[in-house]
Design brief:
By secondary structure, the chain is α/β, with parallel strands linked by helices. It contains 15 helices and 22 strands. The strands form 6 sheets. It has a 7-stranded parallel β-sheet, sandwiched between helices. Strands 3-8-7-6-9-10 form a 6-stranded parallel β-sheet, sandwiched between helices. Helix 3 runs antiparallel to helix 4, helix 4 packs parallel to helix 5 and helix 9 packs across helix 10. It starts with 6 loop residues before the first helix and ends in a 6-residue tail after the last strand. About 2% of the residues have low confidence. Bound molecules: nicotinamide-adenine-dinucleotide. Nicotinamide-adenine-dinucleotide (NAD) binds next to helix 7 and helix 8. Nicotinamide-adenine-dinucleotide binds next to helix 7 and helix 8.
Length: 485
């Protein structure tokens, strides 16, 4: 199934499925039980992390014994179920975390089903010469320990499962506690798909109540050979300090530059489309804009024509006091401004209401003009609030945008037709993803070329992860033979 659904089509599908679900999801106590859903026991969910690892180890052994065709059959079943149950997971995710938008989460699941690479991503290399043949194969690590976020919970579980299983691994998850019902629903989905396709009943596993302690058990367990962490700076640091091979997909703060050669109307629409997608939860989404001052007014007008609501400087100050709160580090006693969990991923209308502004559901993003030092520019808000900073030229734009990205080297965007400007910014910012003249989500294959992932590993260098990221290279040498020329 191709991903060329219109917003209206998605809304229609979602509305019809949700109509049937309303009585089941969110309105019953069982909906929040991470062991069962609507009275049905979820498969592969354990009280004890050690039991989950034992189950994932058995899953790994089963995958090892499969042919590639059998593995691909399971992956195909995961894709089918993911497409079919995308609206359920989207609704569950929004109901449980109170973050994001059902239509967009539905689209994200369909993207994962369609564009996450399977076994075709695993390719062997052969080198032949006077001394014969040397073969390099991408082999599984074993059991992978995967930490997943609250922002794209089931999307990450399914995307990682497809890639990790395609590579021949088993997987145990320690999902985000705030999205545990949604994440465990997705883990159960992978196991149902496995059973339907003739695979083991429990292929991947998780725990009922993930904590920092269960994560530590995972880090230290002898069977876990690779850790893959998708989350903020704290958790990425903790896996990278584990002493095990780890893939870290961390935070970003993607800047956007708009220069005076850009198609300003298109830039305005693209930026609002990207920034408001799933209420700005994707780590790749536009977080702050640096606009040439000679086009800034036109850009802001264009944004307002596309569902943005402009607030004044004093309203921005009032909103900043609500969305950023002081949090004291219990160990150091240092107080730091931190995004309020009550505001992350909320609708623009909900955020505006907090400062006494009532708007309709057509408003999908809040914009405001700020200076560079404003907290909206400096913090990764993950909510549909977009600060716009006027700049005099490309030198200032690049300088400030690189600083606002804080060296995360995650994602950056630019709207321009000047190839020198585009090239200069891409070189200066050094991000894993650089999107030119399109909404941010084009960078993960949504309306752009290339595969998708929800685990973008900047800190450890794998980039947009796929099956091959979860493999280790093994060499097999045959001397003097098997060169046939
Ligand atoms: P988070 O950092 O709050 O939590 C991520 C996971 O780590 C959760 O499962 C949490 O329980 C766990 N965790 C937190 N601290 C831990 C520790 N010390 N030890 C073990 N586990 C720990 O993430 P979130 O708020 O759900 O996600 C948002 C953050 O993740 C943002 O910064 C976003 O940019 C980033 N993110 C990055 C990517 C990427 O691909 N690079 C994708 C999604 C999210």
């Amino acid at each position: 199934m191709a991903i060329n659904w219109t917003e209206a089509q998605i809304e229609e599908v979602v509305a019809s499925v949700i109509k049937n679900l309303k009585t089941e999801v969110g309105n019953t106590s069982t909906a929040w039980d991470s062991k069962q859903y609507g009275g049905r026991k979820l498969i592969g969910i354990y009280e004890d992390m050690n039991d989950a690892i034992t189950a994932a180890t058995a899953g790994y052994k089963a995958v090892r014994a499969m042919s590639l065709v059998e593995r691909e059959k399971i992956i195909s079943a995961i894709r089918d179920l993911c497409r079919k149950e995308a609206p359920i997971m989207a609704e569950l995710g929004v109901s449980e975390t109170k973050m994001g938008r059902v239509a967009h989460k539905t689209a994200k699941h369909i993207l994962v089903a369609d564009k996450t690479p399977g076994t075709a991503d695993i390719v062997s290399q052969a080198k032949t010469g006077d001394f014969g043949l040397t073969l390099t194969e991408m082999a599984p690590f074993g059991v992978v320990g995967s930490i997943t976020p609250s922002t794209n919970p089931s999307e990450t579980v399914i995307c990682n499962s497809i890639g990790m299983i395609a590579a021949g691994n088993g997987v145990v998850f320690n999902p985000h506690p705030n999205a545990i019902a949604t994440s465990n629903y997705a883990i159960d989905l992978v196991n149902r798909a496995s059973a339907m396709a003739g695979g083991p009943k429990v292929l991947v596993a998780s725990v009922v109540k993930p904590t920092l302690e269960t994560a530590q058990i995972m880090y230290k367990h002898a069977n876990i050979r690779l850790l893959v962490c998708t989350g903020g700076p704290g958790v990425v640091k903790s896996v990278l300090s584990s002493g095990k091979k780890a893939i870290g997909a961390g935070a970003g703060n993607p800047p956007v530059i708009v220069d005076d050669t850009a198609d300003i109307k298109k830039a305005a629409k693209d930026i609002i489309d990207g920034c408001s997608f799933d209420n700005n939860l994707p780590c790749i989404a536009e977080k702050e804009v640096f606009a040439f001052k000679n086009i800034a007014d036109e850009l802001i007008d264009g944004m307002q024509e596309n569902g943005a609501y402009k607030i004044t400087a004093s309203q921005a100050e009032a909103l900043a006091k609500i969305v950023l709160v002081d949090v004291k580090n219990p160990k150091t006693g240092i107080v730091k401004k931190t995004v309020s969990r009550d505001c992350v991923g909320r609708d623009a209308a909900v955020l505006l209401e907090k400062i006494g502004v009532k708007v309709g559901s057509d408003i999908r993003c809040i914009i405001c003009e700020t200076n560079f030092d404003h907290p909206f520019v400096q913090h990764e808000l993950m909510m549909p609030i977009l600060p716009i900073v006027r700049v005099k030229d490309i030198d200032e734009a690049i300088d400030l945008a690189v600083k606002a990205e804080h060296g995360c080297r995650h994602t950056a965007h630019m709207h321009s037709k000047n190839i020198d400007h585009l090239t200069r910014f891409a070189r200066a910012v050094e991000t894993t993803i650089f999107v030119k003249n399109a909404p941010s989500y084009a960078g993960i294959g949504f309306g752009g070329e290339g595969h998708t992932t929800f685990t973008i590993a900047g800190p450890t260098g794998e980039g947009l992860t796929s099956a091959r990221s979860f493999t280790r290279y093994r060499r097999c040498v045959m001397v003097d033979n098997f060169r046939i020329i």
